[in-house]
From TrEMBL:
InterPro entries: PsdUridine_synth_cat_dom_sf, PsdUridine_synth_RsuA/RluA, RluA_PseudoU_synthase. It comes from the Bacteria. Keywords: Isomerase. Belongs to the pseudouridine synthase RluA family. SUPFAM superfamilies: Pseudouridine synthase (SSF55120). The keyword Isomerase applies. This is Pseudouridine synthase. Residues 19-174 form the Pseudouridine synthase RsuA/RluA-like domain.
Length: 237
């Protein structure tokens, strides 16, 4: 059996046991398939498991949450249906603590705080609008943020989303702070990054193991790209 052309086991796999597969998703890869037909991370993960354990058929991989295609960072996948069911419940009940890093072009006037918006998604244009007050069928979105400091000619913001809405961090930073994420032309940044990613990284996930009940914390190093280099100085944060 030839090894499938997937990621390096040493770099992208953060953790694996009988129930969980924790990955550091590269920017540009879908988590789950869509109408583009591009191979998603879930399929790559299943191929990795099939090869590693010499499975004659498809390996089970359950997707409990997603990152936008241009976003990098920690993704938790389930290797068993029991783990998937419990992970889904934890994400739904906000029992997973999520930490993101975002690079922005200017420092917000208020360096830490809480943002609340009501988000309305346009599925045709795949863009989300944020309103500061209740708006129609808008879904309430909450996050906490803190500016960690300058990172080269950018500023690094740590974001802890409390809810998990489509494009939430992207639109809330752009609308609420006036600081669109570097490379995110969809939400107001002036120019794309060379790799067409955006400088938003799922840095950390904390949750109780869905089966063993052990406290788990997973951190993903930022992409090895020039625009992220200066942020590595904040790894102790």
């Amino acid at each position: 059996m030839n090894r499938p052309n997937i990621w390096s086991e040493q770099e992208e796999i953060l953790f694996e046991d009988n129930h969980l597969l924790i990955l550091n998703k590269p920017a540009g890869i879908l988590v789950q398939g869509d109408n583009t037909g591009d191979e998603p991370l879930s399929v790559k993960a299943a191929e990795y498991l099939r090869f590693k354990y010499k499975k004659p058929g498809a390996a089970f991989v359950g997707v409990a949450h997603r990152l936008d295609r241009p976003v990098s960072g920690v993704v938790a996948m389930a290797k068993t249906s029991k783990a998937l069911s419990r992970l889904n419940e934890m994400f739904r009940d906000n029992k997973v603590h999520k930490t993101y890093w975002a690079l922005v072009g200017k420092c917000p006037e208020v360096i830490s705080g809480h943002l609340t918006h009501w988000l309305v998604k346009d599925p045709i244009r795949n863009v989300t609008k944020a309103y500061s007050e209740r708006h129609g069928q808008g879904l309430k979105a909450d996050l906490d943020y803190q500016v960690l400091g300058p990172a080269g000619n950018r500023f690094l913001i740590q974001v802890n989303p409390i809810t998990g809405r489509p494009h939430q961090i992207r639109v809330q930073l752009a609308t609420g702070l006036g600081t669109p994420i570097v490379g995110d032309v969809k939400y107001g940044f002036l120019s794309p990054l060379p790799d067409v990613s955006i400088a938003l990284h799922a840095r950390q996930l904390e949750f109780e193991h869905p089966v063993t009940k052990e406290a788990m914390c997973f951190r993903a190093p930022v992409p090895d790209m020039p625009h992220w280099e200066a942020s590595k100085a904040f790894y102790t944060v």
